[in-house]
Amino acid sequence: MKKIIAITSGDPLGIGPEITVKALKSKELRSSFIPIVIGEPESLKKAGWNSNLSHFINTANLPLNLKAKAPDKTAGLLSFKAVKIAVKLALTKKADAIVTAPISKEAWQMAQIKYAGHTDFFRKTLKSHPLMSFISGNIRAALLTEHIALKNVSSQITKRKILEKTELFNEALKTLGIKKPRICVCALNPHSGDNGLMGREEIKTIAPAIAELKQKGILADGPYPTDSAWLNHINGNFDGIVTNYHDQALAPLKIIAKGHNFAHWTYGLDFIRTSPAHGTAFDIAGQKKASHLSMLTAILFALKLVNRKQRDSSTAWQPNKNPRTS
To answer: Given pLDDT bands bounded at 50, 70 and 90, which one contains residue 259?
Structure first.
């Protein structure tokens, strides 16, 4: 029986509709699953969508100027509505997974939506503490903090957070078939703090958390300086890498994946959710320039997770019902 994937087309003024349509037209996806696209119809039709490509749920109930290629209140409302519908489909088992095209956080703010983005919405409405991770083949990175200012990272790196996120990452890697994941934990400061000369987060927080993880039987090691951590991971010495902040993961990963061939995976929800690992790209929206490869990767990875979940009856697939809080 074919699996059902709910796909939100993202902000209708961004590249979401275009990459959704391009991905659905890819030969790699032909007849492999049943897609349900959720979004604003005119932006999708303009991108080449037709009823032969997918089932469709219309979110449009407000007029929208499709010529505007910038954050917009109405576009924010429509993209948020699509996410809510997709989540409802997943929670009621009417979809096996959801894939979300990029939304504009600014548009959500303009629409007075109280969530900072997809992950914040999932966290607050589902009362969960999911893990943001990024996958490109054998390269797998997880974030301790998400979309916060760099100046605030140090105060957010706590022992409890390192334990919570690394334990979730360990579970996530196991669901990919890695029986005993080897996990590299990044340092926060250059040269891993140089024995406290350039910061003491490694000594006071990160190293003690790693020691406790080892006591629990998790094969975590570090803290490694960022350059050394990534080199070790690329060379296959670790199955995954835990990073402290957004760009510590995304900058190396985008270079390794040549900008497109990787996906975002939110692990720890009651359903499977993936997404392309980029934004709305308003500057090229509507110009047919957008690469759909990250969206394609996200859909293919969601299908892989759905099929693996079906085969795997282990408790690794059970969401963490009582996660630690940082």
So the answer is: low
